[in-house]
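subagent[fold] <- orchestrator: predict structure for attached chain, return tokens only, no commentary.
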Amino acid sequence: DELDPVICMLSEQHRQDDADFLGILNALRGGVIRRHHAETLLSRVNATLSGEATELHTVNVDVDRINDARLRATEGESRTYHMTRTGKANYVDSLRRSCLAPEELVLKVGALVMCIKNAQDRKYVNGSLGVVTEFEEMTGYPVVELHNGRILTMTPDTWELRDGDKKRASLTQIPLRLAWAITVHKSQGMTIDAARIDLRGAFVPGMGYVALSRVRTLSSLSLLGINKMALQVSPEALRIDE
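subagent[fold] -> orchestrator:
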């Protein structure tokens, strides 16, 4: 009562402006999916997308298998970037669980990559896709051509865990990860340019909503498959939403 906070209700959608797609997502979030919603989604099974798209899968084993195979099939020498860290082990471990950066990032020219942090200068955002075109001669840092045509040298960035003004832990790594595939869990918070999504193995309520809402339009979505669980939301989430 003494704090008297200002309460802000977020009601405007910014990621999607496709009315049909928004209708599906709103119905999914509200637990009121109808036949026509499901039929529209099913029409995107194996839909053709222009250019390369990230695959979203439900489990890490599928993601690692796809990324490893695609990287091996890419010709050329690889470059490896190792994460550095500061802080006590328990704080570092806590920060690692919430950080998308890999401990060891292995790249080649031609690798499909995804930015995993919002740039302070707004040159890229969390989820921006691109291709490694070269490695900078002096530094060895990867040069990436984003799907929007912008060409950037990707330099190390830092993730921090703070307790008030005190820094408890930090991780430093190139803010990229291989993007031929990513888990639904790791995709949370991202806006992805185009995605092929496999929801045949969806195993918790809400997983389908998280995956589908990563893209902006139906035309940028291709489904590899979907199950009934992917169309469910948890009763607790519905109660909270009410």
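orchestrator: received. Logging for downstream: The chain has a mean pLDDT of 93. The CA atoms of residues 25 and 38 lie 11 Å apart.
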